[in-house]
Amino acid sequence: MTDKLNFVMISPHFPTNFETFAHRLYESGMNTLGIADVPYDQLSEGLRQHLTEYYRVDDMQDYDQVYRAVAYFAHKYGRIDRVESHNEFWLELDAKLRTDFNVFGFKNEDMLAIKTKRQMKEVFRNQGLKVAAGDTFKTDKEAKKLAKKLGFPIIVKPNSGVGASDTYKLKTSDELDHFLANRSSQVDYIMEEFMDGDIITFDGLADHDGKIVFYSSLEHSEAVLDTVANGTDMYYFLPREINPELVTLGEKCVSAFNIKERFFHFEFFRIKETGEIIPLEVNCRPPGGMTIDMWNYANDFDIFKEYANVVKENHFKSESKRPYHVFYISRRGDKEYRHSLEDIRQYFGQHLVSIVSVPGIFSEIMGQDGIIGRCPERETMRDLIRYAQEKV
To answer: Residue limits of the ATP-grasp domain (predicted)?
Structure first.
């Protein structure tokens, strides 16, 4: 037994760039106690060196196995102080473990509001915020009645789901019939009115008391749904300037969903005609992909270290001045580009942060290659994006 904080890390090896959480928590003096189903020798050397102990289970979806792993850690190291995966997939597992071991953070009873889109709408409405009209449906008859009420086009997506997977924009009653004939019987769907606009985000980190200690935003070249449907290139970027109205709405959401000592990723519609900002959904975890690393490039700080500071001392020590726009440019494997990756290295020069290869599972959205750059001026950013995505 020790007086160190005992931090149980669920699936600390995935995604790879999240391994740095283990590095910084370990370096700050905590016991980092990893649980996953990967053999120990398949973990990266860096992760192995920054885990106090690792417990391998056969199946992460077998709760009894994971429970026994945490119980073992509690017996050996004392009271468990934190359980966290930073991953949407394990939100409910994290909450169940926190409930059973009485650990700070979201518990079982919090999951309905932060996992299901219908319940999110209720929380938004209770805050006096406008939301897209819509509801869940069980039967084909209910779906058709709802579609008639909302009017085409409509958006249909899982009531509890991540990203754009299994999400459809349906323009006619025939398309709705096709969806209903082929939909998964295991999934609870929600139908919403289509809003013509783009999605912007309010992302960041709240401290132990729910105070926002860091925030950022994301803007996209097009909706992720369109990128998947059309097989197009996309880019997204972290703007230096963030709309004060978006910040105010984000602060309301952090308070409404009782977010404490954790990352958040809120999505909003920005209506094309009016510029009105309407809340869409909350994600109580960091944004995906390389975004968390892009925060570091935008601010010249270490967000992983700052998270460890918040957990240990409830203090975010760095300043967020956003001296750079930081952008991610996708390049697909099925298109012929005018400029090679080596050309890009030369043309970008000091504005290039890195070029990454994207694993197959993510490449449909993120491209086969991802180019991350940064610069102070928007005009420079637009020129670099144009150069990288120019076709033959």
So the answer is: 121-312
